[in-house]
UniProtKB/TrEMBL annotation:
<dbReference type="InterPro" id="IPR049704">
    <property type="entry name" value="Aminotrans_3_PPA_site"/>
</dbReference>
<dbReference type="GO" id="GO:0008483">
    <property type="term" value="F:transaminase activity"/>
</dbReference>
<dbReference type="InterPro" id="IPR015422">
    <property type="entry name" value="PyrdxlP-dep_Trfase_small"/>
</dbReference>
<dbReference type="Pfam" id="PF00202">
    <property type="entry name" value="Aminotran_3"/>
</dbReference>
<protein>
    <submittedName>
        <fullName>Aspartate aminotransferase family protein</fullName>
    </submittedName>
</protein>
<dbReference type="InterPro" id="IPR050103">
    <property type="entry name" value="Class-III_PLP-dep_AT"/>
</dbReference>
<keyword id="KW-0032">Aminotransferase</keyword>
<dbReference type="InterPro" id="IPR005814">
    <property type="entry name" value="Aminotrans_3"/>
</dbReference>
<dbReference type="InterPro" id="IPR015421">
    <property type="entry name" value="PyrdxlP-dep_Trfase_major"/>
</dbReference>
<comment type="similarity">
    <text>Belongs to the class-III pyridoxal-phosphate-dependent aminotransferase family.</text>
</comment>
<keyword id="KW-0663">Pyridoxal phosphate</keyword>
<dbReference type="InterPro" id="IPR015424">
    <property type="entry name" value="PyrdxlP-dep_Trfase"/>
</dbReference>
<keyword id="KW-0808">Transferase</keyword>
Length: 430
């Protein structure tokens, strides 16, 4: 049945759809951290729709509210609703300390890319600047502004000119930089400083700095301590907003509400999406300090400025995480996943580095000469799919195994999944 659905999809869907093709899987249903395919096979889900399903597939606590809301109404543009105000208040409650109580939220549309566009517009609007500092390895979305600040040429070379004034600074990546963590941070910060402060630095009229606190698509690249604080200081010194893109790393994924909390650094603007819609409803938001709330009514317009059902789902999902203390669970279970991978890497030089925080986990693979090896990650993914575990990949060379399971993943399921993943690593590298 899965093969048949895939065949039908190939006939009628866009050629841009992307999923691993070697192992035929078409989804039929999902529950918690498991999904069932059209042929009745059950899989442990270690990628959660790219970090969307933090409270699990079709979480019943969230769905109760979804059904109730859908029966009342679904769409209101910006007219006040309980659902809208509740979610804004909830976001304020869980915001990084420096934004709590003095934050505004704009729902700019359904996708993460929309939230990034809003962050870019807000930065430009408030500073009058045009230039943006972004980072190598960064991913921010598929719309023109978001593509401009994304660094991978593959995503954007066919669509230039994009925003003209974007300079990509190095992101600290000690493993690839072949530098100590401190040297890697110092190098990145010096470059950012130069871009903004040196007359030859490249940005004549800066509007802001946009960065992922942990790079997701880039390969779960987890910067050493000091990087985010360094950016905070540079942004303040240069009087430009610091934008944290928390679309993949936020809403509990790392065992804190926001990845930036690991360093206690507060941005001026923060984007969120993915898990914001609770159980997969498309919803994104840009949260920002009230000092930047200068737009006039209607200045940032759009039709889908907050899916009411998605908003209800989002609030309920946050409540669910709070009530079940899933942040602690994510921290503990993340330690377990990393420990299993590290153990596997001790005797296997091809598993070169394990990274991440909480349930945002990456393992980087190299060939016998230490070069990035995407084929190994491919083989691991295929093996896992064949053996009932859904895993994803990331990284510039597709050589990073990426695990971002629902936060509701149980220890039992995690152990079963890790047994398969460790077998997959052995199978793919020997
Ligand atoms: N920013 C980050 C950090 C992301 O990981 C993504 C999606 N992978 C986006 C922005 C874009 O989100 P969307 O695909 O919903 O437009």
């Amino acid at each position: 049945k899965s093969r048949e659905l895939i065949r039908r999809q190939k006939d009628i869907d866009s050629s841009a759809v992307a999923y691993p093709e070697d192992i035929p899987i078409a989804f039929e249903s999902g529950k918690g951290a498991t999904v069932r395919d059209a042929d009745g096979n059950t899989f442990i889900d270690m990628f959660a729709g790219i970090g969307v399903l933090n409270v699990g597939h079709s979480n019943p606590y969230v769905l109760d509210a979804v059904h109730e809301q859908a029966d009342k109404f679904v769409h209101t543009v910006d007219f006040p609703t309980e659902a809208r105000l509740e979610l804004i208040e909830k976001l304020d409650e869980i915001a990084p300390e420096g934004l709590q109580g003095n934050m505004r939220t704009v729902f700019g549309g359904p996708t993460g890319s929309d939230a990034v566009e809003a962050a870019i517009k807000l930065s430009k609007y408030n500073t009058g600047g045009t230039g943006l500092v972004a980072f190598r390895g960064g991913y921010h979305g598929a719309t023109s502004g978001a593509m401009s600040v994304t660094s991978n040429k593959k995503f954007k070379e066919a669509y230039t000119p994009l925003l003209p004034d974007v300079v990509h600074a190095p992101y600290p990546y000690p493993f690839r930089d072949d530098k100590s963590p401190q040297a890697s941070v110092d190098h990145a910060l010096e470059e950012v400083q130069q871009i903004l402060e040196d007359p030859y630095g490249g940005l004549a009229n800066p509007a802001g700095i946009i960065v992922e606190p942990i790079q997701g698509e880039g390969g779960i690249v987890t910067p050493p301590e000091g990087f985010l604080q360094g950016l905070r200081d540079i942004a303040t010194d240069n009087d430009v907003p610091l934008v944290f893109d928390e679309i993949q790393s936020g809403l509990g994924r790392t065992g804190q509400w926001w990845a930036n909390e690991w360093e206690g650094v507060t941005p001026d603007i923060m984007t969120t999406a993915k898990a914001l819609g609770g159980v997969g409803f498309p919803l994104s938001a840009t949260m920002y300090h009230e000092d930047l709330d200068t737009w006039g009514s209607g200045d940032h317009a759009g039709t889908y400025r907050g899916h009411v059902v998605g908003m209800r789902a989002g609030t309920r999902a946050i409540e669910y995480i709070q009530e079940h203390d899933l942040l602690s669970h994510a921290r503990e279970l993340g330690e377990y996943l990393r420990a299993r991978l590290e153990e596997a890497g001790e005797s296997n030089p091809q598993l070169a580095e394990v990274r991440g925080k909480g349930l945002f986990v990456g393992a980087e693979f190299v060939d016998a000469d230490g070069h990035p090896d995407g084929d190994v990650a491919d083989a691991i993914q295929d093996y896992c799919f064949e053996h009932g575990v859904l895993v994803w990949k990331a990284g510039r060379h597709g050589n990073v195994l990426r695990l971002l399971p629902p936060l509701v993943l149980t220890r039992d399921l995690a152990e079963t999944a890790m047994d398969v993943i460790v077998d997959a690593v052995e199978h793919a590298t020997t």
